[in-house]
Amino acid sequence: LLSAIPYIGKVLMEWLWGGFSVDNATLTRFFTLHFLFPFTIAALTVIHLMFLHETGSNNPLGLNSDGEKMSFHSYYSFKDLVGFVILIMCLFMLTLFQPQLLTDP
Fold it and tell me: Positive or negative CA dihedral for 102, 44, 47, 51?
């Protein structure tokens, strides 16, 4: 995606991957970034949900609407937590009991 940035995309790609050669350093960078990326997305999602559940979600533009502000009910936080636990349990059951379903056909 960096290469799509006009004018500086090529320089950013060469800086990030260490050039065009596929050697040990380039592969290490590639695997490190691809390993950390899902954790980064998960952390940003948790931060987003913390602030969303703290202040409410009825004012996405940041307008002054103190009279209409509704706090986020704990029901939604609990519902999100239960949904996340169910999703993780389903993924764990799939991974542990039927791992061959996750392979190539």
Answer: negative
Structure confidence at residue 68 as a pLDDT band (50, 70, 90): low
- pLDDT, tens digit, 9 for 90 and up, residues 21-39: 667 777 787 788 888 999 9
CA dihedral 90, 95, 96, 99 (to 10 degrees): 140
- Average the pLDDT over 45-58 and give the result: 75
Number of domains making up the chain: 1
Angle between the 24-55 and 74-97 helix axes, to the nearest 10 degrees? Answer: 150
C-beta of residue 60 within 8 angstroms of C-beta of residue 45: no
Buried residues in 56-66 as b, exposed as e (16+ CB within 10 A):
eeeeeeeeeee
For residue 10, give its domain range.
2-102
CA 39 to each of CA 44, 73, 90, 94: distance values in angstroms, whole numbers, following the listed order: 9, 27, 20, 21
